[in-house]
């Protein structure tokens, strides 16, 4: 069995407030396999971005990582010091932010920014780095002669592509995409996602892809992790999750998306709204909104139940079923 | 929630209570304000010749007597009122004028900006204290003159800083949104842009007040104030006039000097607590730092790892 590139084990993240720590990631475990695209879905505030930034250890105050291990290429990222993290960041793992297009320096040309990034971490000389920058830009669909353009001369979609080129420039083994296309229109989004998928095929890096667009995610990802209120509700192969979702929340989420297929059912929403993490519901956090609630739901936290290769969910219904089966 | 919420005076008081340095500053300033308001009624007439000149501190005269045989304590206490009044008036005055000119220039831009920028740039290159000395020498001496002199020579720097700050704010989306919502220019400046500068304005008032007190004492020490009035500056003027240093009569100038230093110290301390009010992020960081200290973890650039067993 292949070893995962990234293995998150029982990770917890707290935001410290005056009233004590608030848990924003609660005991989450998941693996990212080599060459895999893992989608991370969930409502706003469910912990998707917090998870991504916790992996990179770039969460700003008042965040602290309060437990668990993050194993990346045999190193525990939670044990590394600043220098160790600096070496790893961007060379082995990189990130495209939702606002990557705004992260470009307005007074330095995009080529120079890519060259700078490469020169920090490699011993490329300027002309080698520049050649590679041209190559990278062409890879993400920007003509190489735009290398001396400045950010304001490019459209939002192009700037986002520059962000992706920057993330790929050191050939990392893991690229975290934090809603990379949310600020773009659907046409550009589709193009960019297609390019990412193509690049990923060609270069073989792993991707952790965060979005709240479940439909899009199911198209792009190999596996999908669904977050609800700081916990992992369900994780499984994209196809299996779409055709046969196990967790009631995943089921509800899938029903809530409209389909453009003719004769499709009308979308149904999940009643209620996500809980406040300041005072989360007892037991299973989804139970106040769940349509299939049983007694245990409000009592105890459901344990993770394995449902097949790479497929698991935290739900009392499932643990009872498997409990009955064995 | 112990986090600062709401608005107005309560917010500032809460900020002072929370911050140790601000508390110290507030206490020091409170004592001086009390002296400034009630002091003159609590001590004897500072002008009265009450004893033998240049007596060191004793039970009869706690801070000794001056070269004229007046009570030093009475002079320091009575001097507090005028010195602080001028200090705060100048501090607030220069920031008001600076804000008016700076924000107007920054927001309106164009010719108005060119003219106003020229104006404060001219004032900036004129050396402040020498100009103050020249003006003070020509105008009739007195506290009011001093205040005017210090305001005229002190406003330009504030205007420049606030113009720059306005320039960074006026292109922000929230200003564009206010414009689209139909708000008037005046309202945009006063309700949208000005509140983003609150902590800067407060810091400027405090800094300018410290400057004003120092400059005013300096001018009076040089004899450019009203030497028959009782202020900290004239106290020092008379101490010098009576050769206090030569005769070793330290009690005639040390108390006044200490008062100037203490007020400046108190104001600076107070300022440190105010940053948090307009920067809510700093409030969050405070809780975070406390939490890290409690768990013996260093605040690092990367997200710190704090494993607790609860």
From TrEMBL, chain A:
<dbReference type="InterPro" id="IPR003439">
    <property type="entry name" value="ABC_transporter-like_ATP-bd"/>
</dbReference>
<keyword id="KW-0547">Nucleotide-binding</keyword>
<feature type="domain" description="ABC transporter">
    <location>
        <begin position="8"/>
        <end position="254"/>
    </location>
</feature>
<dbReference type="Pfam" id="PF08352">
    <property type="entry name" value="oligo_HPY"/>
</dbReference>
<dbReference type="GO" id="GO:0016887">
    <property type="term" value="F:ATP hydrolysis activity"/>
</dbReference>
<dbReference type="GO" id="GO:0015833">
    <property type="term" value="P:peptide transport"/>
</dbReference>
<protein>
    <submittedName>
        <fullName>ABC transporter ATP-binding protein</fullName>
    </submittedName>
</protein>
<dbReference type="InterPro" id="IPR027417">
    <property type="entry name" value="P-loop_NTPase"/>
</dbReference>
<dbReference type="InterPro" id="IPR017871">
    <property type="entry name" value="ABC_transporter-like_CS"/>
</dbReference>
<keyword id="KW-0067">ATP-binding</keyword>
<dbReference type="InterPro" id="IPR013563">
    <property type="entry name" value="Oligopep_ABC_C"/>
</dbReference>
<keyword id="KW-0813">Transport</keyword>
<dbReference type="GO" id="GO:0005524">
    <property type="term" value="F:ATP binding"/>
</dbReference>
<dbReference type="InterPro" id="IPR003593">
    <property type="entry name" value="AAA+_ATPase"/>
</dbReference>
<dbReference type="Pfam" id="PF00005">
    <property type="entry name" value="ABC_tran"/>
</dbReference>
Automatic annotation (TrEMBL), chain B:
<protein>
    <submittedName>
        <fullName>ABC transporter permease</fullName>
    </submittedName>
</protein>
<feature type="transmembrane region" description="Helical">
    <location>
        <begin position="24"/>
        <end position="43"/>
    </location>
</feature>
<feature type="transmembrane region" description="Helical">
    <location>
        <begin position="144"/>
        <end position="162"/>
    </location>
</feature>
<dbReference type="InterPro" id="IPR000515">
    <property type="entry name" value="MetI-like"/>
</dbReference>
<keyword id="KW-1133">Transmembrane helix</keyword>
<dbReference type="InterPro" id="IPR050366">
    <property type="entry name" value="BP-dependent_transpt_permease"/>
</dbReference>
<feature type="domain" description="ABC transmembrane type-1">
    <location>
        <begin position="84"/>
        <end position="271"/>
    </location>
</feature>
<feature type="transmembrane region" description="Helical">
    <location>
        <begin position="248"/>
        <end position="270"/>
    </location>
</feature>
<comment type="similarity">
    <text>Belongs to the binding-protein-dependent transport system permease family.</text>
</comment>
<keyword id="KW-0813">Transport</keyword>
<dbReference type="InterPro" id="IPR035906">
    <property type="entry name" value="MetI-like_sf"/>
</dbReference>
<feature type="transmembrane region" description="Helical">
    <location>
        <begin position="84"/>
        <end position="108"/>
    </location>
</feature>
<keyword id="KW-0812">Transmembrane</keyword>
<dbReference type="Pfam" id="PF12911">
    <property type="entry name" value="OppC_N"/>
</dbReference>
<keyword id="KW-1003">Cell membrane</keyword>
<dbReference type="GO" id="GO:0071916">
    <property type="term" value="F:dipeptide transmembrane transporter activity"/>
</dbReference>
<dbReference type="InterPro" id="IPR025966">
    <property type="entry name" value="OppC_N"/>
</dbReference>
<dbReference type="Pfam" id="PF00528">
    <property type="entry name" value="BPD_transp_1"/>
</dbReference>
<dbReference type="GO" id="GO:0005886">
    <property type="term" value="C:plasma membrane"/>
</dbReference>
<feature type="transmembrane region" description="Helical">
    <location>
        <begin position="193"/>
        <end position="214"/>
    </location>
</feature>
<keyword id="KW-0472">Membrane</keyword>
<feature type="transmembrane region" description="Helical">
    <location>
        <begin position="115"/>
        <end position="138"/>
    </location>
</feature>
């Amino acid at each position: 069995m292949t070893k995962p590139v990234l293995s998150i084990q029982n990770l917890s993240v707290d935001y410290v407030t005056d009233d004590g720590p608030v848990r924003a990631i609660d005991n989450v475990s998941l693996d990212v396999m080599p060459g895999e695209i893992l989608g991370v879905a969930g409502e706003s505030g469910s912990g998707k971005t917090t998870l991504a930034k916790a992996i990179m250890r770039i969460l700003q105050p008042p965040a602290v990582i309060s437990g668990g291990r993050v194993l990346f290429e045999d190193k525990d990222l939670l044990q590394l010091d600043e220098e160790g993290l600096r070496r790893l960041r961007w060379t082995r793992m990189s990130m495209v932010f939702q606002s990557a297009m705004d992260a470009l320096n307005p007074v330095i040309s995009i080529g120079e920014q890519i060259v700078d990034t490469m020169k920090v971490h490699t011993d490329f000389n300027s002309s080698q780095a520049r050649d590679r920058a041209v190559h990278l830009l062409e890879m993400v669909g920007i003509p190489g002669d735009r290398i001396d353009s400045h950010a304001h001369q490019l459209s939002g979609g192009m700037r986002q592509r520059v962000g992706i080129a920057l993330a790929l420039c050191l050939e990392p083994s893991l690229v975290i995409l934090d809603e990379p296309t949310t600020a773009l229109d659907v046409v550009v989004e589709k193009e960019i996602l297609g390019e990412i998928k193509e690049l990923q095929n060609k270069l073989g890096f792993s991707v952790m892809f965060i979005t709240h667009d479940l439909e899009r995610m199911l198209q792009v990802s190999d596996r999908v992790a669904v977050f609800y209120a700081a916990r992992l509700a369900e994780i499984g192969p994209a196809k299996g999750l779409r055709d046969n979702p196990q967790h009631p929340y995943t089921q509800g989420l899938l029903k809530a998306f409209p389909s453009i297929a003719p004769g499709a059912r009308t979308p149904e929403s999940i009643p209620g709204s996500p809980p406040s993490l300041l005072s989360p519901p007892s037991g299973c956090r989804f139970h106040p909104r769940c349509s299939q609630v049983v007694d245990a739901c409000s009592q105890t936290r459901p344990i993770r139940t394995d449902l097949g290769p790479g497929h698991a969910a935290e739900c009392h219904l499932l643990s009872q079923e498997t409990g009955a089966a064995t | 929630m112990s986090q600062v919420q709401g608005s107005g005076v309560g917010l500032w008081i809460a900020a002072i209570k929370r911050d140790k340095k601000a508390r110290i500053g507030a206490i020091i300033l409170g004592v001086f304000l009390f002296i400034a308001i009630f002091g003159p009624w609590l001590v004897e007439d500072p002008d009265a010749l009450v004893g033998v000149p240049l007596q060191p501190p004793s039970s009869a005269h706690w801070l000794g007597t001056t070269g004229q045989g007046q009570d030093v304590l009475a002079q320091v206490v009575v001097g507090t009122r005028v010195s602080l009044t001028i200090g705060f008036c100048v501090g607030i005055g220069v920031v008001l004028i600076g804000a008016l000119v700076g924000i107007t220039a920054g927001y309106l831009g164009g010719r108005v900006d060119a003219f106003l920028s020229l104006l404060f740039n001219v004032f900036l290159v004129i050396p402040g204290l020498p100009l103050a000395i020249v003006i003070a020498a020509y105008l009739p001496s007195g506290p009011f003159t001093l205040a005017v002199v210090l305001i005229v020579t002190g406003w330009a720097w504030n205007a420049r800083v606030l113009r720059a700050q306005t320039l960074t704010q006026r292109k922000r989306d929230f200003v564009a949104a206010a414009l689209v919502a139909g708000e008037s220019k005046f309202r945009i400046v006063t309700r949208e842009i000005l509140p983003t500068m609150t902590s800067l304005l407060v810091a400027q008032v405090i800094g300018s007040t410290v400057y004003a007190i120092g400059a005013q004492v300096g001018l009076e020490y040089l004899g450019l104030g009203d030497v028959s009035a009782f202020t900290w500056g004239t106290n020092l003027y008379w101490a010098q006039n009576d050769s206090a240093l030569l005769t070793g009569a330290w009690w005639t100038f040390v108390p006044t000097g200490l008062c100037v230093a203490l007020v400046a110290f108190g104001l600076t301390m107070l300022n440190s607590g105010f940053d948090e009010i307009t920067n809510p992020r700093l409030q969050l960081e405070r809780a975070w730092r406390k939490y890290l200290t409690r768990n013996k973890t260093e605040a690092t650039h990367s997200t710190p790892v704090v494993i607790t067993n609860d």
